[in-house]
Amino acid sequence: MCTQSSCLNAGKCGCTDTSISVPAVYSNNTTICPVSTTNCSEVFSSNCICYDGPDIVEMGVSSGTSMAELMQKLILTHTNAGCANFDGTVIHAPLNITLSNVAATTFDVVWSAVPNAVTYNITVTDSNTLVVAHTSSVTAPVVSETVVGLTTATIYDVVIQVVDAVAATCDSLQYRMTTI
């Protein structure tokens, strides 16, 4: 069940103190979901679905963890296991990255703080040419940056790298966005 206190995005997704139930009749109702050549899809914010099972210690997952964070941790476990240690003793890859306020040449990026982080490096690469379009660094505890100087209508890949006091690094998953 998702509650106001556990939903990471409570104001944007409609989480309330009660769970939302969907009658089974909707899955086969052709009035609501007409038969067509494409499936009737359902869109949800993965920040609004909260895990409510027992703690998964190895992954730092507890009741109230968003599906978005859980999915990131699962992917990191398989693609970059060295940066998927979530017990707080060493750095891990940045999580909960949000790209917002996308405009013609700028956007904002925000992520969750990583224990033991000293610096975060932001790299934005043109996904077609693989040319680095933007690099910057922020000092922890800052966990946001406004990226500027981009080209309109261009697809970019964004990676946040965390660096600790002994220069160990972990990269986030790669996120894709398009300027307006």
Low-confidence segments: 1-9
Radius of gyration: 19 Å
Taking all residues together, what is the mean pLDDT?
84
The secondary structure category is mainly beta
Helix tally equals 2
End-to-end gap = 36 Å
- Please report which band the strand proportion falls in: under 5%, 5-15%, 15-25%, 25-35%, 35-45% or over 45%: 15-25%
Secondary-structure element series:
HHEEEEEEEE
Overall tally of structural domains:
2
| Shape summary | globular
Helix coverage percent: under 10%
Please report the total strand number as a whole number: 8
Largest sheet: 5 strands, antiparallel
Question: How would you describe this protein?
Answer:
By secondary structure, the protein is mainly beta. The protein folds into two domains: 1-87, no CATH class; 92-178, Immunoglobulin-like (Sandwich), CATH 2.60.40. The chain has two helices and eight strands. Strands 3, 4, 6, 7 and 8 form a five-stranded antiparallel beta sheet that branches. Strands 1-2-5 form a three-stranded antiparallel beta sheet, with no helix packed on it. A hairpin with a 5-residue loop joins strand 3 and strand 4. The chain is globular, with a radius of gyration of 19 Å. The two termini are 36 Å apart.
Summarize the structure.
By secondary structure, the protein is mainly β. Helix content is 9%, strand content 24%. The relative contact order is 0.14.
